[in-house]
Amino acid sequence: MPDEPAPAPTALPSRMPNALSSTMPTMADPAPWWKTSVVYQVYPRSFADGDGDGIGDLPGLIARLDHIHDLGADILWVSPFYPSPQADNGYDVSDYQDVDPLFGTLADVDRLIAELHARGMKLVIDIVVNHTSDAHPWFVESRSSADNPKRDWYWWRPPREGFALGDPGAEPTEWQSFFSGSTWEPDAQAGAYYLHLFERRQPDLNWENPQVRAAVHDMLRWWLDRGVDGFRFDVINLVSKSIAADGSGWFFNGPRIHEFLHEMNRESWAGRRIAGGGAVFTVGETPNASVEDARLYTDPTRGEVDMVFQFEHMGVDHGPGGRYDVRPVDWVAMKEVLDRWQRGLAEVGWNSLYWCNHDQPRPVSRYGAGDTAYRDSSAKALATVLHLQRGTPFVYQGEELGMANYPFTSLDQLDDVESRNWARAALARGVDPAQVLAAVNVQSRDHARTPMQWDAGPHAGFTTGTPWLPVNPDHVRVNAAAQRADPDSVLAHYRRLIALRRQLPVLVDGRFELLLPDHPHVVAFTRRLGSEALLVVANLGSEPAQVELPDSWADSTVLLASGMPSAPLPWGRLAPWEARIHAS
Ligand code: TEU
Prior knowledge:
This protein is of the alpha/beta class. The protein is built from 16 helices and 22 strands.
């Protein structure tokens, strides 16, 4: 256990490999390399524009890799860059084995892989195989006629008995799409409905058909041959569906889901070695997965995926009406969820840790102090709470700067298909437009998608053209260039947290124990491994707090602190948004 504060962020030489080679496993190594990793997610549209068309791209990303490397992250996850009509910004794929000209070329992907590997980093690509775009040649064929060999690659169903195509109530089930409205689209050309759990231009693939699964496996092997190191699987627990003739059925964690995941693992990456010798890294996005489901998905002996993105903690500020039915964050409820996942995956499986991604609002606005004097302290406190849990942390672009939600003043400024569809449906139901705008201003996915704030210059240094989504006006204060020069910045805090993970085995493997479960805004927990122990305590509120903490920690070393007042407070007293990591 080091008894000195973590080194200042400048201690990382810019070309030092981020993953130490000693952490690379051999075939027999029981500790997978990614347990000490930190993942950085890039949404390529919004990260860096290399050609001035206002849309981020792969050359822009490659030119900014040192930002991610200097942060200390060692895995890069890139959201989809494949050819796509962009109905859902690339999560509607029309060719799994190419790059959309908006984002670059396959040669750019090769260069990205080479540049990452030269830095000791890995590339994880986003695999969207619950659905394709309706422009994918598979769907074009499937739709063309009832006897086309690809007809059964999608979910085609006749109207309910006694109904004609398009009649109200004729849909094969009553399922509601994630993006509003029925999940069934009447298709005049096919004379039948097709299933789309998301937008109507995102038809669901039929994984019951073994040819579909084999095509997915082939595609995954093709990317591994090209040199990618792992996969993030979009909504992977939706691929097994149960649809009964009477309109009942379900699509979360469906009847054949474990079989499909195990088969995909076996056929696509089991036993393969990536550059550096480790195993392929996999994370599945799994809305509505319980701890029990996640234990099955991530138990290494079952050969499915390494970790999943669970959604329970994302639901703490959602009311019964879903994400736009906004409620204040209840930290007691949040702690209960986090603690249950920490304990549930302690012996079997592994947690992913995230506060945000390209689908979620910005944490500093959602859970933090917003744009107040405590903004940066709150970003640091939230980061400390996340990164000190057991699991693999994910940092979403701009989170490391404490980027905030965009102040939308009109629904016309929205781009995201989910927000737009929801707003349209809410207005049609008669909801007051001011209330619709207010909900969007808390929850829209667009908050995550405004351009990355590189500097205080025009368009925050994101593009020389006109950005596809407006840049947050706060970029003049909140940007990477300013924070790089400031040892007290949010960015510096993230670098210290990531450096600590590399130094302290207790942070990676230590047992998690929640303290103060009933305190309304203080999060406190310990981590223990052998004789090593850490105490994490954070006041996630803009009021000071007084808490009972074990006295044995009173004189312990403080490894990292943020939000501290200049004069230290007595033991148990916390300043607003103060966070500390103690080592015994
Ligand atoms: O998201 C799936 C998902 O369940 C949600 O996070 C979704 O974004 C919705 O907003 C919940 O309210 C994945 C991708 O991350 C997302 O960007 C895609 O739009 C979606 O799948 C479809 O591919």
